[in-house]
């Protein structure tokens, strides 16, 4: 048994993980108590990492045109086809689309190959979908993509402002750090600014439920208010900034009064002015913002409106202060460091950076090559697929991402992929929505196998360490890229034997002619990590860049002296003119759509869905709808409904919620064709982007809501391996939910079934062993047992009639059903077995019914519930739900005195 320290592969917090390997298997994970990002904390997704591994469902062999081939054939074919298309159509006809799931070393060699040696600028990344507006905002204000803050600032702040971020669900470890800080410092305040009442509001001192898309009005109003009340740091503005007069004039013109801003944002004026007063009166303020700000057609302006307020108040470059963009993926920042965006070269140099083309060309020794480095930026993500659709891009290499799901207007993206002459996919999962479009499939290593570095949201570089060998013939991405490069004729430039050699070159490039000849010094500088060698690389401790001779232990906070990366060293305030969403509402599409993540799932669920317990919190795709909108549309809580947009539709289960504003609907981004064909959120979003950042407007769709009129609903549980076909997927609605030992299917259709026993024979092998049917209401329960083993189980009826499925799930693992268990199959539970209800605490698998019973028995605090049931005692993500249940059930709770009386 051995232990290794590595990094969680999910969000941008970059939590340290201590993994235990036993007999070649990753048997357990826990938070690394020494890692400064999390100090031992893990969210429920991180805690379940070891449950998401295994060779099942992995790509293990290269394929060319659907046929398994050797690596030599796959690599040679890749190189030959790329060269053929370049010769026929030019270097700009090839492109790459990368991912924040790649390690920095993978990213570096991919960028070097495509931009440096293939001579194409068309290399972009899925970070374009989540972080591009924040990047553009930082560059405009500071002259560099440089996050000024660190996580300790969240704990040292007097005021933390969450904007467009459900931190409790999407970055739960940071949320817990803030929560603990508030408990230690009763004077610390938290403001949540979000159209939805989310779990992040649990510890909020003030909530502003603004109208979607009005963030820039809000912060323009704050800037104008600070000037009116003489709350500006005029000394800081004079010494360290420029552009203030124009920024203030624009703010006063568009948001000159509290009443005007309150009307535009649809918030209470008194609450708005309270926020303004708190922000202006405190020096130590951190504004933490994420996708709710970035994913907009004016996302860059929104970011700069936030930054303007921090610069105007001097709330930057000191402990507990600054505008802090929190990233969505574990290595979104690492990808930006090496040039993973289409408008970048490498090492935080852009095409327009003075001397950058010559500098990078000389460093990579491409100055004598034909082609040379491209002279201008390439296509950003949405533009890239539009160029494929036009036939301009002939070859696309996609690595570790799923654009057939994640990009807006997904049908158009799929049509483009269908007509692209060459699609190469490097992937670790055997079943994704992208693979049917791939001509060449290259099996890549995954987390627990990959070895390299990532950079989290606070600029902290950490080692991700490989602990297990890749399955079958899977290989590391950096190796695959380099082997193709060698076959393209660039062996000398890609002759790396280990990731540390790539990292060393990356570090040397960051320092190469950095700040010479009067040009601004690039903030990204890790020259202090040059020459580590393999031993130093393997033992590298987490460290924040810049890392230089002057700062050998890293840099916790940027711009402390008020010196920025601009030509004159001054930060720039921008004149912001707020704009509403480009996807406008209409009579046909009257409801505003918001998209986002949920607590227990990650992106397109290729990893998290492998852990059955992570599927229990929100098992099916859903839509959150305000009660008034539900009534108007004629939809019911837990019923099925359809969202229709100009580009497509979305079918899911309704959750009626007062947390939604009227006229607005929330849907999750995670479900794909692997889990349901009717709930791809990207089908509802138009391909409108921010003109500066290229980031899609994914938060502001326009939709109509209507009920899905079904003749029947059913729940089907099928043992693993019973059938390879799924004829029931022709139903009007289906959702697949992985469980231990079986697959659960939620089904519904608009057409009646005349005889369910006949229908079952067309769907499933084996005879019905037990059945219960009520023709008067269409209810039916049936099961098939073969050789003493449960093969499938069906209930026709709405899901709210289901028993707790834990007992049934366990029966699929029985080698032979007992007579008692066989008699209880139709009931779906054992005699006296408690139905625990929907899972609330995923860490300890504690259900809602169990929690409600405990509350009614007198456990009316989170601490009491934790002591009895363990819920809320691990990652803490379920605590807001626990509090909600306590409030709902408190009137029904029995006091300790009444319990004592009952005992007597």
TrEMBL record:
Keywords: 4Fe-4S, Iron, Iron-sulfur, Metal-binding, Molybdenum, Nitrate assimilation, Oxidoreductase. Its cofactor is Mo-bis(molybdopterin guanine dinucleotide); [4Fe-4S] cluster. InterPro entries: Asp_de-COase-like_dom_sf (IPR009010), BFD-like_2Fe2S-bd_dom (IPR007419), BFD-like_2Fe2S-bd_dom_sf (IPR041854), CT_Nitrate-R-NapA-like (IPR041957), MoPterin_dinucl-bd_dom (IPR006657), Mopterin_OxRdtase (IPR006656), Mopterin_OxRdtase_4Fe-4S_dom (IPR006963), Prok_molybdopt-oxidoreductase (IPR050123). Residues 1-57 form the 4Fe-4S Mo/W bis-MGD-type domain. One of its GO terms (cellular component) is membrane. GO terms for biological process: cellular respiration; nitrate assimilation. Belongs to the prokaryotic molybdopterin-containing oxidoreductase family. NasA/NapA/NarB subfamily. This is Nitrate reductase. It comes from Vreelandella sulfidaeris. The lineage of its organism: Bacteria, Pseudomonadati, Pseudomonadota, Gammaproteobacteria, Oceanospirillales.
């Amino acid at each position: 048994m051995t232990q290794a320290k590595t990094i969680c592969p999910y969000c941008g917090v970059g939590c340290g993980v201590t993994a235990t390997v036993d007999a070649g298997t990753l048997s357990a994970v826990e938070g690394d108590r020494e890692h400064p990002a999390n100090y031992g904390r893990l969210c429920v997704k991180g805690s379940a990492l070891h449950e998401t591994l295994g060779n099942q469902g992995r790509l293990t062999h290269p394929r060319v045109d659907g046929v398994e081939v050797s690596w030599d054939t796959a690599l040679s074919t890749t190189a030959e086809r790329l060269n053929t298309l370049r010769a026929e159509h030019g270097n700009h006809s090839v492109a790459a689309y990368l991912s924040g799931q790649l390690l920095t070393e993978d990213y570096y060699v991919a960028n070097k190959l495509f931009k440096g040696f293939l001579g194409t600028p068309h290399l972009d990344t899925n970070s374009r979908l989540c972080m591009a507006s924040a990047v553009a905002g930082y560059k405009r204000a500071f002259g560099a993509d440089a996050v000024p803050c660190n996580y300790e600032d969240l704990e040292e702040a007097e005021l933390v402002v969450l904007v467009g971020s459900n931190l409790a669900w999407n970055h739960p470890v940071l949320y817990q750090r803030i929560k603990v800080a508030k408990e230690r410092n009763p004077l610390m305040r938290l403001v949540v600014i979000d159209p939805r009442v989310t779990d992040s509001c649990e510890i909020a001192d003030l909530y502003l439920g603004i109208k979607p898309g009005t963030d820039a009005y809000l912060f323009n109003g704050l800037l104008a208010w600070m000037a009116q009340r003489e709350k500006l740091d005029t000394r800081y503005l004079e010494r360290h900034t420029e552009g203030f007069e124009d920024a203030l004039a624009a703010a006063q013109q568009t948001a000159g009064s509290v009443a005007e801003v309150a009307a535009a944002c649809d918030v209470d004026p008194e609450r708005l002015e309270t926020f303004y007063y708190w922000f202006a009166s405190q020096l130590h303020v951190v504004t933490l913002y994420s996708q709710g700000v970035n994913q907009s057609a004016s996302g860059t302006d929104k970011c700069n409106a936030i930054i303007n307020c921090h610069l105007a108040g001097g709330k930057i470059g000191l402990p507990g202060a600054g505008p802090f963009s929190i990233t969505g993926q574990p290595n979104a920042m690492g990808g930006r460091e090496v040039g993973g965006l289409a408008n970048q070269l490498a090492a935080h140099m852009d095409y327009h950076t003075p001397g950058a083309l010559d500098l990078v060309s000389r460093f990579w020794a491409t100055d004598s090559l034909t082609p040379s480095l491209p002279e201008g930026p390439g296509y950003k993500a949405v533009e890239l697929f539009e160029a494929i659709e036009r036939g301009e891009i002939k070859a696309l290499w996609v690595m570790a991402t799923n654009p057939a799901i994640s990009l807006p207007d997904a049908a158009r993206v799929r049509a483009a992929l269908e007509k692209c002459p060459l699609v190469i996919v490097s992937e670790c999962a055997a079943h994704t929505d992208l693979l049917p479009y791939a001509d060449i499939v290259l099996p890549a290593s995954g987390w627990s196998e990959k070895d390299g570095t990532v950079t989290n949201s606070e600029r902290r570089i950490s080692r991700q360490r490989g602990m297990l060998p890749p399955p079958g013939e899977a290989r590391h991405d950096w190796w695959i890229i380099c082997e193709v490069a060698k076959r393209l004729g660039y062996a000398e430039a890609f002759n790396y034997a280990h990731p540390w050699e790539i990292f060393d070159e990356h570090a040397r490039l960051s320092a190469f002619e950095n700040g010479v000849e009067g040009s601004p010094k690039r903030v990204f500088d890790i020259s202090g990590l040059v020459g580590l060698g393999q031993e130093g690389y393997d033992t590298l401790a987490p460290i924040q860049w810049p890392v230089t001779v002057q700062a050998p232990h890293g840099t916790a906070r940027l711009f402390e002296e008020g010196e920025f990366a601009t030509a004159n060293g001054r930060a720039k305030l921008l004149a912001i003119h707020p704009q509403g969403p480009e996807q406008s509402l209409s009579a046909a599409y009257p409801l505003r759509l918001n998209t986002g993540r949920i607590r227990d799932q990650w992106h397109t669920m290729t990893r998290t869905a492998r852990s059955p317990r992570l599927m229990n919190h929100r098992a099916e795709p859903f839509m959150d709808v305000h009660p008034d909108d539900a009534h108007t549309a004629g939809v019911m809580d837990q019923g099925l409904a359809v969202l229709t947009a100009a580009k497509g539709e979305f079918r899911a289960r309704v959750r009626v919620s007062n947390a939604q504003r009227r006229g607005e609907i929330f849907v999750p981004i995670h479900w794909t064709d692997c889990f349901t064909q009717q709930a791809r959120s990207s089908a509802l979003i138009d391909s409108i982007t921010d003109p500066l950042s290229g980031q899609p407007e994914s938060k502001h769709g326009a939709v109509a809501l209507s009920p899905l009129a079904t003749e029947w609903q059913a729940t089907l549980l099928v043992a693993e391996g019973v059938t390879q076909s799924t004829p029931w997927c022709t139903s009007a609605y289906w959702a697949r939910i992985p469980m231990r030992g079986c697959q659960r299917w939620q089904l519904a259709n608009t057409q009646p079934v005349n005889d369910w026993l006949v229908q079952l024979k067309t769907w499933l092998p084996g005879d019905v062993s037990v059945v219960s049917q009520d023709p008067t209401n269409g209810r039916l329960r049936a099961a098939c047992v073969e050789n003493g083993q449960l093969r499938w189980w069906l209930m026709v009826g709405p899901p709210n009639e289901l028993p707790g499925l834990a007992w049934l799930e366990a029966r699929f693992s029985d080698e032979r059903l007992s007579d008692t268990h066989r008699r209880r199959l139709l009931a779906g539970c054992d005699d006296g077995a408690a139905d625990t209800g929907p899972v609330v605490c995923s860490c300890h698998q504690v259900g809602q019914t169990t929690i409600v019973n405990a509350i009614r028995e007198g456990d009316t605090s989170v601490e009491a519930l934790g002591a009895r049931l363990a819920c809320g005692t691990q990652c803490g993500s379920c605590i807001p739900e626990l509090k909600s249940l306590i409030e709902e059930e408190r009137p029904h709770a029995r006091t300790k005195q009444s319990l004592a009386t009952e005992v007597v």
